[in-house]
Amino acid sequence: MKTKVFSMKELTGREELDAIKECAAIIKKGGLVAFPTETVYGLGGNALDANVSKKIYAAKGRPSDNPLIVHICDMKGLYEVAEGVTDAAIQLADRFWPGPLTMILKKKSIVPDETTGGLDTVAVRMPSHKDALRLINASGVPIAAPSANSSGRPSPTMAGHVLQDLDGKIDAVIDGGAVDIGLESTIIDLSAAVPVLLRPGYITTEMIKEVVGEIERDPTLDAGVSEGMKPKAPGMMYRHYAPKGDMVIVTGNTDNVIEKINELARGHDPHETAVITTEENRHAYSGCRVVCMGTRQDEQSVARQLYSVLRRMDEYNIKYIYVESFKSDRLGDAIMNRLLKAAGHKVIHVEGRY
Ligand code: TXA
Ligand code: MG
Fold first, then answer.
1. How far apart are CA 72 and CA 124, in angstroms?
2. How far is the CA of 7 from the centre of ligand 1 (A)?
3. Which residues does the chain have with pLDDT short of 50?
4. Which of 233, 244, 286, 347 could form a disulfide with 198 if both were Cys (CB 3.0 to 4.6 A apart)?
């Protein structure tokens, strides 16, 4: 299959609308279109068609017990797919939709089991990216969209990443340039009495608490997935977002972290070794490849670059990756969550706190 690429920045307003229409026609016919959202690129198809969900799993090489997020463009869409929409859900939608928040609610029977991985709940999100909203609206159906990467690889933050993984396997890509946030949406489970955070993201725990009061945190987020412990979001179980090399996070007092990483890096061939750091410390490392992702002054700049930096590790054929840790509050919670998963929870603690 030839994957058609629609480059939005090269199109006039009129042509953009035509491109959206063409992509919506593909979705209506049961095809797959990757599209930008404010978080990461999604691989979209009709969420109400069981065969389409199967095609999404096949294109990504993703296990079919890992449910998909259903993307909607208005509140009508929420009632179409979800049962028993709670007050908390309405308050959260009011505050954060359209935006990077996914809510888990009881599903309506119109949503096929293939889309929800056999669960009786459904994950719903109203994205804020204009192309995403236009595509869902023009398609006239809710769109199931996992991140548009091959299963296990870092999520795509630009159309080029989507093509690296899925060229020839999907009908089209809408190229809307680099995404704004760079990490997947926050997931909150509202199907039980107390809301549970299943995946941290740009909408932080602090922000959600302001709206709904106390929330719980899925215990596997911090402990990692060990035997007998199953995360409530099945997707959080897989080694994810991961480069091929062996990745280790070093945490502690900054000077000690730098010293430790330099020492560890010296133990390997410099061509096969990389350090991931930020602007603040980029000159503190030597003797291997040093890759910088944003600045600690602005954690959004780190989030935005994290996945493309992880992808670059594979392009450079890096075998040993050392990365500094981040404070685990606010957006740092999501950054550390993705780093821990990419590193398979391998952490070295040196003296002092970050
Ligand atoms: O930002 C995002 O959410 C992106 C963009 C494209 O919207 N999408 C995304 O989808 O990250 P995906 O499929 O890569 O991640 C979905 C996560 C998985 O961990 C999955 O297990 C979880 O959501 N999930 C989906 N439905 C669920 C459900 N009913 N109960 C619990 N977890 C669910
Ligand atoms: Mg994903």
1. 7
2. 26
3. none
4. 233
* CA-nearest residue, atom 20 of ligand 1: 235
List the one residue out of 248, 247, 241, 193 whose CA is nearest residue 216.
193
Residue with tokens 């065969």: 51
Q: How is residue 286 annotated by DSSP? A: -
Asked if 211 contacts 41 with a C-beta cutoff of 8 angstroms, the reply is no
Q: How far is the CA of 104 from the centre of ligand 1 (A)?
A: 10
State in Å: Cα 69 to ligand 2 middle.
10
pTM: 0.96
Query: Up-side HSE of residue 11: CA atoms within 13 Å toward CB?
Result: 17
Closest by CA to 313, choosing from 261, 339, 275, is 275
Ligand 1 neighbours (beta carbon < 6 A): 37, 39-40, 42, 66-69, 102, 104, 116, 119, 121-123, 125, 127, 145-147, 184-185, 187, 198, 232-236
pLDDT for 224 equals 67
HSE, CB side, 13 Å, CA atoms: give it for residue 180: 11
Q: Which tens digits make up the pLDDT trace of 57-105?
A: 999 998 888 999 999 999 999 999 999 999 999 999 999 999 999 999 9
Residues 6+ apart with CB under 8 A from 57: 63, 64, 66
* pLDDT tens readout for residues 297-315: 999 999 999 999 999 999 9
Token output for 109: 């029977």
Q: Phi and psi dihedrals of 275, rounded to 5? A: -115, 135
Distance CA 206, CA 211 (A): 9
> Which neighbouring-strand residues pair with 348?
250
CA of 43 to the centre of ligand 2 (A): 10
